Amino acid sequence: MFTVMDEDKAKEIKNWPVTINIPGDGGAITKAEIRCDFLLLKQDEIDSIIQAAREGDDSSDLMEKVWIGFNGVQDAAGTTIEFSAPNRDRLLKISYLRSAVTREYFNAVNGGKPKRGN
Predict the structure, then answer these.
(1) Is the predicted pLDDT of residue 69 greater than 60, yes or no?
(2) What was the pLDDT predicted at 59?
(3) Residue 20: which domain range?
(4) How many domains would you assign to the chain?
(5) Is the pLDDT confidence value at 117 over 60?
(6) 46 and 102 Cβ atoms separated by less than 8 Å
(7) Bridge-partner residues for 22, per DSSP?
(8) Is residue 42 part of a domain?
(9) Which of 15, 24, 42, 108, CA to CA, is 20 to 30 A from 7?
């Protein structure tokens, strides 16, 4: 049986696995996994943000609003990168990473199973 919870509160999903396919020369793909925390918005909120973005509102970035944490990210020197809005925004500029995070956000919203393994 499905139990309807308080619909006025957005739900946080913690530690959702995100596999990133990193493109390389000759069609090679390297896989990396990070863990993300997401805010699961109500559908009307998602629709409103997407519509505003389609209409050219630069402040309407769904991933900026729903990606609220991560771990498993490091820089080239091996130093852990902690979650912050500027670090999230920096990562969102990496197209293949953004694609992976967006895909897994919608998997979470749609009740999809998190992907396991490489």
Answers:
(1) yes
(2) 64
(3) 11-109
(4) 1
(5) no
(6) no
(7) 30
(8) yes
(9) 15
- Arithmetic mean of pLDDT, 11-38: 96
End-to-end alpha carbon distance in the chain: 33
* The two three-digit tokens of residue 45, written as one number: 């909120």
Q: Residue 52 falls within a domain, yes or no?
A: yes
DSSP string computed for 8-64 = TSPEEEEEEEEEEEEE-GGG-EEEEEEEEEEEE--HHHHHHHHHHHHTT-TT--HHH
Given this model, what pLDDT does residue 52 score?
85
Reading the block at residue 98, the tokens are 């953004």
Average pLDDT of span 44-72 = 86
> How far apart are the C-alpha atoms of 103 and 60, rounded to whole Å?
18
Residue 116 lies in a domain: no
pLDDT of residue 118: 47
90 and 81 in contact (C-beta within 8 Å)?
no
Query: Does the residue 41 lie in any domain?
Result: yes
At 51, list the tokens.
């519509």
